[in-house]
Amino acid sequence: MLENYLLSTATHEERQRAIAVEAALEVIKATLSDTNDGNGVSFQLQAAEKHIKSLADAIQNAIDKK
What we know:
- This protein has 66 residues and is mainly alpha-helical.
- It contains two helices and no strands.
- α1 crosses α2 (41-65).
- The chain starts with 11 loop residues before the first helix and ends with a helix.
């Protein structure tokens, strides 16, 4: 999904971050699609926005620690 967002001039670090963000989006997408708690889409999107950076950070840290 994000592979076309970055130009070929992107640095290695920018590409790594895009991979981590894409993985975080997939986790959030799976979590939200599996949730039937009665909250509306707006609430769920706000929850996703609140957690995406920390989730991407955790994924990137896990990748970097190999």
